[in-house]
Amino acid sequence: MSKANGEEFAKASQIEKTASKADAVLEHVAEAARTAAHELSPLEAVHGYPKAIFWSLIVSMCVIMEGYDTILIGNFYAYPQFAAKFGQFVDASGRPQLSAGWQAGLSNASVVGCFIGGLANGWLVTKFGQKRVILAALGVLSAFIFITFFAQNIIMLLVGQFLCGLPWGIFVTSAPAYASEVLPLSLRVYFTSWTNMCFIIGQLIAAGVLAGLVNTPDQWAYRIPFALQWTWPAFLFPILCFAPESPWHLVRIGKLDVARKSLQRLQSSEASAKISIDATLAEIVHTNNTEIELQSGTSYRDCFKGPERRRTEIACVSFAGQVLSGSTFAYNSTYFFQQVGLATSETYYLNTGGTALALVGTLISWFAIMPYVGRRTTYFFGMGTLCAILTIIGVLNVWTDKGNVDMVQAVLTLVWTFVFQLSIGQLGWAIPAEIGSTRLRQKTICLARNSYYIVAVISQVIQPYFMNPGELNLSGYTGFVWGSTAFLTFVWVWFRLPESKGRTFEELDLLFAHGVPARKFKNAEGRRKTARGGVEEVGCAVVKQS
Q1: What is the pLDDT of residues 319-356, one digit of tens each?
Q2: SS3 of 326-360
Q3: Contact at 8 Å (CB) between 117 and 168?
Q4: What CATH class has 49-243+294-542?
Q5: Helical spans, DSSP H, in 40-76
Q6: What pLDDT is recorded for position 17?
Q7: Which residues pair with 142 in a beta bridge?
Q8: Which CA distances in Å does 352 have to 47, 73, 197?
Q9: DSSP output for 192-240
Q10: Which of 94, 212, 377, 429 is deepest in the core (most CB within 10 A)?
Q11: Which residues contact 178 (CB under 8 A, 6 or more apart)?
């Protein structure tokens, strides 16, 4: 070997040793941060991360608008003034009705828009970051609301619904991703599922507005609910101008100094005393590096490669399970109430009560279920219970002399709503936000939400045909249909849904890379294995806990 070559080899060896030493230091600091994250209780995290909690709540409030519209349009079909303006025929009782085709079209217009908006968001956030994309979406939504408010015919209304769906799709996929990236491990499930709470708040507001305006004699009965949608952009836009960007996004694009400043805005001095900002940053960098070593890219195509394919499947089916559990039937309950013979005023009061029950179910889930019960267990038993309720609704429809059976069926849809929010209503949002790798998190959530939208479009196309008196007129027998899809999802959960409670993102990376079966996730420990000489390899050692 020549002298020059020898000097180059020595220099390269020195650089490699320095890099190895830096990696070792990074791993040590990151490991300390992970340990501290596991030890941080929810109460300590609340005290240590109040600013992160605030910004997570504000971003998630954008979802209120989609929740508001979800119940608004579906329940307008039984609204006398709306049906009189946009209906196509008069039924045997002399009531104006929208045809099943137009019901399906209006219900799905915003869903199609949300699908496109959510898919685009996976690319937009990677390029521009969460903050700028959300602000732009709020501005665009403010303009599109004019179309629905001034709609003169059903076609104009359908176009307005579609266009409003574009920014809604952005909000609903950004909110859980942002929450999972700015909050510590012990708060992750609460504030990713807070997105669902915002959905419920939107539905509760809409239910209250509908109940309050049902006896208004003119077009303002349905125009005022549309106009109220302007409230949220006007309130949220100026506040979100000051929101910090996700530190995970900043690390992925190489802006470590900006990421550190963002962490300073999210962590209080109390949190920094236990988990320093530098340690938190080191954990983010180390997790990002691990995923690069595990060949985790950042494109949609990467979501379907290797272990990511399994993670994408879990996220997609968990989210789509919200529809497969029968939500299209239960959440359009006012139309069901009307078809089984309840008075218009009764239907909207019951609908408001059902939405309030959903809110109560969410709170009980947060304080009595999530801290103690795993994601897999909660989802499994929740889906099984929903399946049973839907089947009972179908069985009750067998009676020819119904008596009070109609009211019992109506009450069971409210019980369904309560159980839904105790279980999969929360976890349908939380699981996709934590199950994907950090480099693909936004795209995994977008794919999961779009899986929800695909199933929702299909269900909203066929649901009016099940219920409409001019079509199949199945009434309560519809419970058998959705009870069957709920049962199939129940079986899937047993074989495919792993336990992710209490896992850091790097632990999940390694467990999936090692191919740990779903039923063994709970009792497996993910860690990086070390080869001889202390040189770290990327992999996973799975150790069964006693």
Answers
A1: 999 999 998 887 766 666 666 566 666 666 776 777 77
A2: CHHHHCCHHHHHHHCCCCHHHHHHHHHHHHHHHHH
A3: yes
A4: mainly alpha
A5: 42-48, 50-60, 64-76
A6: 44
A7: none
A8: 35, 15, 15
A9: HTHHHHHHHHHHHHHHHHHHHHTT--STHHHHHHHHGGGHHHHHHHHHH
A10: 429
A11: 55, 56, 59, 60, 130, 246
Helices (H), 436-496: 441-467, 478-496
**Residue ranges covered by each domain of the chain:** 16-48+249-293, 49-243+294-542
pLDDT digits (tens, 9 = 90+) for 295-319: 767 789 999 998 999 999 999 999 9
Q: Which amino acid is at 4?
A: A
Give the model's pLDDT for residue 257: 93
Query: What tokens were used for 80?
Result: 């006398």
Amino acid at 490: F
- Nearest-angstrom CA–CA distance, 248 and 440: 11
Q: What is the pLDDT of residue 332?
A: 66
Cα separation of 18 and 237, whole Å?
A: 47
Q: Residue 49: exposed, middle, or buried by beta-carbon count in 10 A (0-12, 13-18, 19+)?
A: buried
Which pLDDT value is given to residue 427? 93
- C-alpha 377/C-alpha 330 separation (Å) is 23
Check: CB of residue 439 under 8 Å from CB of residue 288: yes
The one-character DSSP state at 296 is: -
Alpha helices per DSSP H over 301-440: 306-324, 327-330, 333-339, 344-364, 375-396, 405-422, 424-435
Mean pLDDT in order along the chain per 10 residues (546 residues) = 47 43 65 76 87 94 86 76 76 71 83 92 92 96 92 90 94 93 89 86 83 78 88 93 94 92 87 77 87 79 92 96 90 64 65 77 89 93 96 82 70 89 91 91 93 88 76 79 96 95 88 90 66 41 43
Q: What is the rounded CA–CA span in Å between residue 543 and residue 541? A: 6
Give the pLDDT confidence score for residue 174 in this predicted structure. 94
Q: How far is CA 7 from the centre of its chain?
A: 56
Sign of the CA dihedral with 341 first, then 345, 348, and 350 last: negative
Q: Which residues pair with 96 in a beta bridge?
A: 90
